[in-house]
Design a protein that fits this description.
The chain has 713 residues and is of the alpha+beta class. It has 20 helices and 27 strands. The protein has a 13-stranded antiparallel sheet. Strands 1-2-6-3-5-4 form a six-stranded mixed sheet, sandwiched between helices.
Length: 713
């Protein structure tokens, strides 16, 4: 049957082109009927007595009810030492519950009716949205009102949001393109600018529930809210329903500060960020951009398309198609409403082509000022915009969100239609004039990310002056507790440590331990519940370590063999460890209590008494701070009155990023003359992280040297 249909289709196509030689079709001569005229739906606007602005659009085509809110606040309002506050506020408003319902109850309620309510805060605005069947309109409005007006900011949900941020911080250098964009924005706007700054462990750690409550109370006020409602509604009835839930919301007493101005200094400068674990070099070139309200905005739209947007652009044709230097290349002149955008050109190339690609990109950027666009370029530059213009109207939400934005910035409702008409009338002369006004090829920032040792030439050869190196190391955020180090505390700490060693089997027996291996089950706490994973580890002190976690049958490795090592990367492939990974792994082995106990009489370690505590299972313990030969504190050991090791605390890496890890030990069992715990629990920054149950603990086992070699597929 399929063959018959294929034959009929082929015959039909041949008959369609009968009498026309193949390859001689006049594609450019094809005539198309005019596109349907776009009509903007009529939206009813109402302002409540408390200043809340409503946008109402009736659409009976489907039995659905939709809301999109724009709130005048943003990340730019958060303190510099609490970056992440606004984002967490936007998350936990929804997840953390309200005065009437918990977050989990809201989830269950929405799941039962097939509805969705979302909230979030970005750089210059906050938002909320609703999508439910229209029969649940009243309930949806009540849920939205509770979330916007009366969030309770549950501590558990705050901790979860913080953990998600820490995970993002830990992984922020994984992708070279992400590194390049982040560091480029910091060069454009300044590292401390709200338009470029980002979260750190330190800023996340300082955020408290009180901070979230204060941020919400300050900015979530009715006069700051624009609320668009559309779907199966009656406008008059909807106004009364909204008044029912929002009408008694009291105005605020202070206006919201505007986003800060951008102070940019044009300069010609090369910057380099080292990333040696990739086989790419990533290049970004550019400077500050403009506003969408600038007089030549339409000219810049066409200019941007001709230079760098898609196939047929000068950057793509030259760098990728003709020279074959990059798989990905392009550029764009970005214009914002609230603050200036930025101009950039980018390319991802092999390291051995880094400078060649950079020079060609600079050449193409300069060509916009010297070489007027050709007729095909003008067609390409306009068509890319005009042919996609219809998609600005493919959903009611897009139309209403845009209308709220235009109203907020005091722009006419037909701003977009005016923009389209201006693009249609752009001339080659206007494009070149816009390039001369808005692009400064001799005052560009050049950022290259990659492994400079593999570049085709030194970056200095670009002739743009000395190269500044950007440090992309992720700060730990560790707040070190000062330990009073004196002779008395050294003596007391050493005595307490020796008591713990004696209780666990004695120094002589621990000195016999050259290696260990463990099989265990790790139970990890997650938002979806507890996950059980199989775990194997082996240590040959102090040079070799191996740990393997099995997740759904897939092994995830972490192996060190002296000064080299391997781990399972983000894509599931085994990749070499970085120097930082190896240092972290070595430090982890140093803080292994078995190794500490075996080396206690060696000056390598230093034990300082660090005071009593009863925070672990209400058991009285005394802490000993353990430092290595460099004076770095490795961990704090908590020891009970009977000399039993109760816990260990340290600041170190986890799957959620660096943080305070506390291990509590249980079920001590004798193995070959020493006592070891067969169960332990962990917390991360005070939150339950999981537990480990040991099924096999071997002392001085026969370990195959292949265990510490690079794993093979």
């Amino acid at each position: 049957m399929k063959t018959i249909y294929s034959t009929l289709l082929a015959v039909g196509l041949l008959s369609l082109f009968a009498g026309c030689p193949i390859g001689a079709q006049n594609v450019e001569g094809l005539k198309y009927p005019p596109l349907n005229q776009l009509t903007v739906p009529e939206v009813q606007k109402v302002t409540l007595d408390n200043g809340m602005q409503l946008y109402l659009l009736q659409d009976k085509s489907l039995p659905v009810f939709n809301v999109s809110a724009r709130i005048n606040c943003g990340e730019y309002l958060e303190p510099a030492d609490k970056v992440g506050l606004a984002n967490i506020c936007g998350m936990v408003m929804r997840t953390g519950g309200t005065a009437k319902w918990t977050g989990d109850q809201i989830d269950e309620m929405l799941e039962g009716i097939g509805g969705r309510v979302e909230t979030g805060i970005d750089v210059t605005s906050a938002g909320a949205s609703i999508n439910v069947l229209s029969e649940y309109t009243d309930l949806a409005l009540e849920v939205l009102a509770e979330i916007l007006r009366r969030p309770v900011f549950n501590e558990d949900k705050i901790d979860l949001a913080k953990m998600q941020h820490r995970t993002g911080i830990a992984r922020r250098n994984d992708e070279i393109s992400t590194v390049a964009r982040r560091e480029f924005l910091k060069l454009i706007y300044g590292a401390d600018s709200p338009y470029a700054r980002h979260t750190e462990y330190a800023t996340i750690n300082t955020i408290t529930r009180d901070d979230l409550v204060a941020f919400h109370d300050r900015y979530f006020k009715p006069e700051n809210v624009q609320l668009a409602v559309w779907g199966d509604i009656d406008a008059d009835t909807m106004i009364e329903q909204i008044k029912k839930y929002f009408g008694d919301w009291q105005r605020g007493s202070e206006p919201v500060p505007p986003p800060p101005a951008v102070n940019y200094e044009y300069r010609s400068k090369v910057f380099y960020a080292e990333k040696t674990d990739v086989e790419q070099a990533y290049i970004r070139i550019g400077h500050i951009g403009g506003l969408a309200t600038d007089p030549d905005y339409a000219d810049r739209i066409v200019m941007s398309s001709i230079l760098g947007e898609g196939f047929g652009s000068r950057l793509t044709d030259a760098v990728r198609t003709k020279l074959g230097l990059a798989y990905s290349t392009g550029g764009r002149y970005i214009s914002n409403f609230g603050y200036p955008g930025y101009f950039f050109a980018m390319a991802a190339t092999k390291p051995q082509s880094a400078l060649q690609a950079t020079r060609e990109m600079l050449t193409q950027i300069k060509s916009m000022l010297t070489d007027p666009p050709t007729e095909p370029e003008m067609k390409k530059g306009k068509d890319g915009y005009l042919n996609s213009f219809v998609f600005n109207f493919d959903s009611r939400r897009e139309v209403l969100d845009r209308m709220m934005t235009y109203d907020f910035y005091g722009l006419p409702e037909d701003f977009l239609q005016q923009e389209k008409m201006k693009v249609e009338s752009v001339t080659p002369e206007a494009v070149q004039a816009a390039a001369k006004t808005n692009i400064r090829p001799d005052e560009m920032i050049v950022l290259v990310v990659g492994n400079a040792a593999q570049f085709d030439e030194p970056l200095e050869n670009l002739g743009l002056g000395p190269v500044d190196t950007i440090d992309i190391t992720i700060p730990s955020g560790e707040v070190k507790k000062e330990v009073l180090k004196n002779d008395e505390n050294l003596d007391k700490g050493t005595a307490l440590l020796m008591k713990a060693i004696e209780t666990a089997g004695g120094l002589a027996n621990f000195k016999k331990v050259q290696s260990t291996s463990i099989n265990a089950t790790i139970t990890v706490s997650s938002p979806q519940g507890e996950i059980a994973l199989q775990y194997e580890t082996a240590n040959v002190y102090p040079q070799q370590s191996r740990s393997v976690i099995y997740m759904m049958g897939q092994p995830f490795y972490d192996i060190r063999n002296g000064t080299e090592g391997w781990k399972t990367g983000e894509t599931g492939e085994v990749v070499p460890m970085t120097e930082e990974d190896i240092a972290d792994n070595r430090k982890e082995q140093k803080r292994d209590f078995i190794y500490i106990f075996s080396q206690a009489d060696h000056p390598y370690y230093e034990a300082v008494y660090d005071g009593p505590d009863i925070s672990i299972d209400d058991v009285y313990i005394e802490y000993v701070a353990i430092s290595d030969e460099d004076g770095d504190q490795l961990c704090r050991l908590g020891i009970g009155k009977d000399g039993q090791l109760v816990c260990k605390a340290y600041y170190g890496p986890t799957p959620f990023g660096p943080g305070l890890v506390e291990e509590t030990y249980y079920e001590w069992t004798e193995v070959d003359g020493i006592k070891v715990p067969m169960k332990l629990k962990r917390t991360f920054n005070g939150q339950d992280f999981g537990s480990t149950v040991v099924s096999e603990f071997l002392v001085n086992p026969q370990l195959n040297s292949d265990l510490f070699a690079r794993p093979t597929p």
